[in-house]
Amino acid sequence: MPPDKDVLLIYFDQKGEDELADDFFNEHDARGWKTPTGGKIFNWKVCAVEWIYNHRQEVKRRFRQSPFYSESF
User: Fold this and answer.
1) Which of 13, 30, 32, 34 is within CB 3.0–4.6 Å of 18 for a Cys-Cys bond?
2) What is the pLDDT of residues 29-51, one digit of tens each?
3) What per-residue confidence (pLDDT) applies to 14?
4) DSSP label at 15?
5) How far apart are CA 39 and CA 34, in angstroms?
6) In DSSP terms, which residues pair with 40 in a beta bridge?
7) Is 80 exceeded by the pLDDT of residue 71?
8) Quick check: 30 and 42 in contact, CB under 8 A?
9) C-alpha–C-alpha distance, residues 53 and 4, integer Å
10) pTM of the predicted model, to two decimals?
């Protein structure tokens, strides 16, 4: 069952990633709340946590590839 958008916005705000909420909702709504393999999503919070984790990892990866990054401080 897809979440209410307001509940989803509150959840992402509590996780400190409120700017990701609309992208998450729009992508999953376009897919019909199914996984990339076509399975039904039973718990949207599990998908949201994974979405937030992947975003944070991508931010870290971009930072490490930045010319301003140095491991020796």
Assistant:
1) 13
2) 999 999 889 999 999 999 999 99
3) 97
4) T
5) 5
6) 34
7) no
8) no
9) 22
10) 0.83
